[in-house]
Design brief:
Elements: H1 2-19, H2 21-24, H3 32-56, H4 62-79, H5 85-106, H6 113-118
Length: about 120
């Protein structure tokens, strides 16, 4: 029970810091939305890595590759195919998901170092 209370306090403080970030980051000019977007992207990456490595013990080198494939596909569709931002984002997620599914299907029955090498 005590850990739950501490977790809720940490979450409340973190939420308060995030919600007040635009106020105390104004001296940085117009760069703070980009910084907050990077925080969100790398936070999601860290959560995914924690789920796989922290809870199951499988070390995956594919997380960075999946992030890179999705980012590259989104920017390629945004710039070259002249999609707007939302369809380009959806396209990047789909391409990265398909790539991750193929790699995951190949490495599904492996464990230990073989799983790490395949990803």
């Amino acid at each position: 029970m005590r850990t739950l209370r501490h977790d809720l306090i940490y979450m409340a403080v973190f939420t308060l810091v995030i919600l007040t970030m635009p106020l105390w980051m104004q001296p940085f000019g117009a760069a703070y939305p980009d910084l907050l977007q990077r925080f969100a992207i790398y936070g999601i990456l860290a959560i995914g890595f924690n789920v796989l490595f922290g809870m199951t013990g499988y070390l995956s080198f594919g997380h960075a590759a999946f992030l890179g494939v999705g980012s590259y596909a989104a920017m390629w569709s945004f710039k070259l195919l002249t999609m707007s931002a939302i369809p380009a984002l959806i396209f990047g997620v789909l391409v990265s998901g398909i790539f991750a599914a193929v790699i995951g299907f190949i490495s599904l029955r492996r464990s230990g170092i073989y799983f790490s090498i395949l990803t």
